[in-house]
Amino acid sequence: MLNVTEKVVVITGASSGIGEATAKLLAHQGAKVVLAARREDRLKTIEDQIRQDGGQAVSFQADVASYDDMQKLAGFAQEQFGRIDALVNNAGVMPASPLSELRVDEWDRMIDVNVKGVLYGIAAVLPVMRAQRAGHIVNLSSVAGYQVNPTSAVYSATKFAVRAISEGLRQEESPASRIRSTIVSPGLTETELLDSIGSPDTKAMTNQLAGMGISPYAIARAIAFALNEPDDVSVNEIVVRPTALP
Ligand code: NDP
């Protein structure tokens, strides 16, 4: 039996890419998965696929940038399964562009989803996990959370922030409440993430990277590794890059 077997795992951004792969892999390993995202139809399809495969899954429409939605998501997970053992704060957007294009709405969206979304996720589950005196929060950063490139200033800022938040959470909660926290930082991964780029020049640049990323299941396996370590082992940081890229 794996550590995630029969555990309740809430996954944001579960309607595509890394979130979808993580939900399917963890459900296959016996976890009870709670899928969250905005696109309800996609969530339902994935939920059905997991159930047909013999797994346990429920889904809930939530915008991570809404504090209220995240509180409701945590309530729904508890209603369905009685507890929350883990949260994968995976939802994210990357409308990259040079700062000079002044795409202020896109900056706001990245900060709302990538930073506030992670904080609201933590706010929704922390009281539950503290009461349980156990829990695990996995936060998705990025290789862009370690280095900045032209067009990635704001996205990188959000992913640096995710690492800071996750490390702060670890220092505060790990010894006191036995709540583990893990930062998972993917390199280029084949998902829909680049679709959120609005800047035509940036889009043209990133189109050259098509097909060079790794499978979202590579990241799902890293997340599953951290969750499956025994409760007294806290895996704090994992970086996963395509072998063929620098
Ligand atoms: P996808 O675009 O495939 O998935 C993003 C997910 O986030 C979708 O399920 C989307 O669902 C959800 N999402 C976006 N905005 C919101 C919102 N406001 N509320 C709730 N859910 C939202 O990309 P990835 O799978 O690649 O991205 C997953 C994570 O991995 C992100 O945090 C990303 O930054 C990170 N990452 C990805 C890399 C890559 O190369 N792909 C590299 C490094 C990090 P919906 O639209 O239905 O709400």
UniProtKB/TrEMBL annotation:
It comes from the Bacteria. Pfam families: adh_short. Residues 7-189 form the Ketoreductase domain. The keyword Zinc-finger does not apply. One of its GO terms (molecular function) is oxidoreductase activity, acting on the CH-OH group of donors, NAD or NADP as acceptor. InterPro entries: KR_dom (IPR057326), NAD(P)-bd_dom_sf (IPR036291), Sc_DH/Rdtase_CS (IPR020904), SDR_fam (IPR002347). The keyword Protease does not apply. Keywords: Oxidoreductase. Belongs to the short-chain dehydrogenases/reductases (SDR) family. This is SDR family oxidoreductase. It comes from Cohnella rhizosphaerae.
